[in-house]
Amino acid sequence: MRKRNVRAAIAAALCMTVLAAGCGKKADDPVFTGDKTETPVYQANLDAIKSSAYASVDNLDLEPGTYISVIGRASSTPYWNQVKAGVEQAATDLNTALGYSGNDKVKVLYSAPDENDNIDQQVNILDEELARYPDVIAISSVDASACSVQFDLAIENGIPIVAFDSGNSYQNIQSTCKTNNIEAVTTGTKNFCEKIGDSGEILLLVHDTVSDTAKEREAENELAANHPNVTVTETIYLDQLEMLKKQIVAEQVGVKPEELAAAEAGEKKEETTGTGDASETIADAASNAASSSADESANETAQEADNELSEKMQQVNDGAAKMSDEDAIQYYMEKHPDLKGCIATNETVTQLAIRTLDQFDSEKHITLVGFDAGKEQVNALKDGKVDGLIVQNPFGMGYATVVAAARTVLEIGNEAEVNTGYVWVTADNMNDDTITPFLYE
Description:
Helices cover 48% and strands 14% of the residues. The chain has 441 residues and is α/β, with parallel strands linked by helices.
């Protein structure tokens, strides 16, 4: 670590000045009156962080100009806006505590993909930040197994890595600041099952197939272990939704699953090599399956079948392109007329579920439990469209992440996992003083 000799010398000089002046308190010096410092409006968010060491910037004696880079998964959703607010508040508190201003300020930069959970954008941001040689990088990984090359490069250059919100499989992560997702999903699932009578068919709406948060919140293990009469009829992953749309249209126009798979394989081959045609790939597959001889009439029959299949595949692609995400989710709701409810695993899919139910013409109530508490979720909770929300502490998470990053730079030790807290929110308790600090817009 860099030394503090200059600051120590200044402090010594100031002490000598005070001694020379007789060490007496002037009449106009501020006198402690016993009044307490005003409690910040975000104190409840800090109090939810365990351990309390990550709820304070005290004794984080960072060098002037220290650079902390924080990389999130999105830049403009309500949840990630709260994370960013927590990051920026911690930076302000740090610089105030250290007395830094101007170029001496600890620089804390939050950056994230413009498009929610865009792994390519996040990797590009990480590359750019590595080129700036920050003192530490904190990242919420879109893909838990991605970026190992970049992380190796960071470690080689003396840049430690801290994780937050979503964990990472990389071995050299210094600390992870996150919700205890296993505990949170257990709470949410238990309350959800009570509302549906602990039996019946449900949908799971999961935000992706690759992040730690998605895997931890999927709830199937909790349901199987403690709610055996609740059946998951479909698990829908948001990052597979475009393919699901094609499957829906393919079923409607009479394209078999294996034919659709062949078409998709052909499209990927074309994207990779720049040659070939998806319809030609379908034709080859159909022709190979259908032609048992080189007979000319058989070839003509096969060609007719190929042309028909190509036309249907065009219908599949066109129909999927026109289908909204809400339409796709509604299809699966209608597919299961005995459906009792849905569990949504983050802000994005919870909002998607709310919008789907808004357009879903059903006489019965579909129970919905989701995550987080932006304006859309809170209003839906008030209106009875959402039955309960697992509300995380994104402000506290952002704050704790900066503290963990600072502790990493100072090499003063970190807890492997910092629990940033959550609350269970319903229409009955949403106005309680213990709940309102965690609701945001």
